[in-house]
UniProtKB/TrEMBL annotation:
InterPro entries named among the record's database cross-references: Methyltransf_25, SAM-dependent_MTases_sf
Annotated GO biological process: methylation
SUPFAM superfamilies: S-adenosyl-L-methionine-dependent methyltransferases
Keyword field: Methyltransferase, Transferase
Protein known as: Methyltransferase domain-containing protein
One MF term in the entry's GO annotations: methyltransferase activity
Amino acid sequence: MEAYTGFAQVYDKFMDNVPYDEWAQDIRKILLKYGVSEGILLDLGCGTGNITRRLADCGYDMIGIDISEEMLQIAMEKKYEEDEDIPQASKREDILYLNQDMRDFELYGTVSAVVCTCDSLNYITKEEELLHIFSLVNNYLEAGGIFLFDMNTEYKYKEILGDSVIAENREDCSFIWENYFDEKESINEYQVTIFVEAEEEEEERHNQGRLYEKFSETHYQKAYSIDTVKALLEKAGMEFIGIYEAFLDEPPAETTQRVCFLAREKFQPGKVYQ
């Protein structure tokens, strides 16, 4: 499941169109609606910590887990970037980042809520592994704790990404993103090729022209039906609350590209809450 190695250094550059501020505020509204106004939150698949830091700014004690050491290194560097206008910005220094595989993560105790954004769970290409993650989440949630996550839809893989090539060229970096969607297996394979301007002394750059480093990564994501995800949540022991179009307060349509799922820890006799 190795991903986001070379791409990590330019990830935020190419994701600058993602409305992280709006997403974090919408997550905050949902958490408040279900009584999670404070406490420890887990950001599963946190990447460079864009959502993690914003939720810390909302006053939550944050834990971020990601499998990519490179992404976490950037997250660690960025957590000290404080905004003087944000009263809770100092909580960023207390963020705990853990380099773990979400398929087998471990915590020291329970948390009030778990969030997982940016289609991180689509990287889980086996149903049994997704079920195991849901079971782990349920295990580490406090009584009545909330699980909020988004996933790309089958429509997006079939109609938007499938067999397409996306490219973007910028001043100091560029990428080519080639997609292939296997409808039989519901697996989207994409080859990402990144060109990043090398750090060279000015004199060398003047003599040789602009030099670029090339990185290539292959990623795999799986399209899950809403019914499958709902069934797996319930099989893991959670109470399914509902779904909606990602970060919009409305039900998904046939052409929705990203959906948010909301579930809750269901009280289990004999479970020990730490």
